[in-house]
Amino acid sequence: MNVPRTEIGQAMVLPPYAEWLDCSIEWIEDSPQLVMPFGDHVMGWPGLLQGGAIAGLLEVAGIAALTHRLSREGGGRIKPVTVTTDYLRTGRDHPTRAVGTILRLGQRVANVEATAWQEDRNRPIATARLNYRVLRG
Hints:
Elements: H1 16-20, E1 24-28, E2 31-36, H2 51-72, E3 76-87, E4 96-105, E5 109-117, E6 126-136
Antiparallel strand pairs: 1-2, 2-4, 3-6, 4-5, 5-6
């Protein structure tokens, strides 16, 4: 996997799980959008996406969005506090995309929403609410 970069060229640190999921990043309107291909490594029942892979992709999308935003504000580290995933539809044998949206970024806490979809962004297969502790500096 290529090392993803922020808009100012700094290496974006994603968890090793992102590499295991075979995630890649596409920059859409200055935001990182993660793409996870379908394969045996993310398959649950034959032809269906495993729920843990979906949750992992959503968490990585949240981390990517927050890391990208923090890189503009002088950097910082993040630690997950809570992750709540809602499964809305069955994931099929198609590439899955996910994007994180920062709802609130304070000095010490960040609230992020992540959405995953396959063929139509208006028909998400899962969403997640993620809360992070932000360590600036």
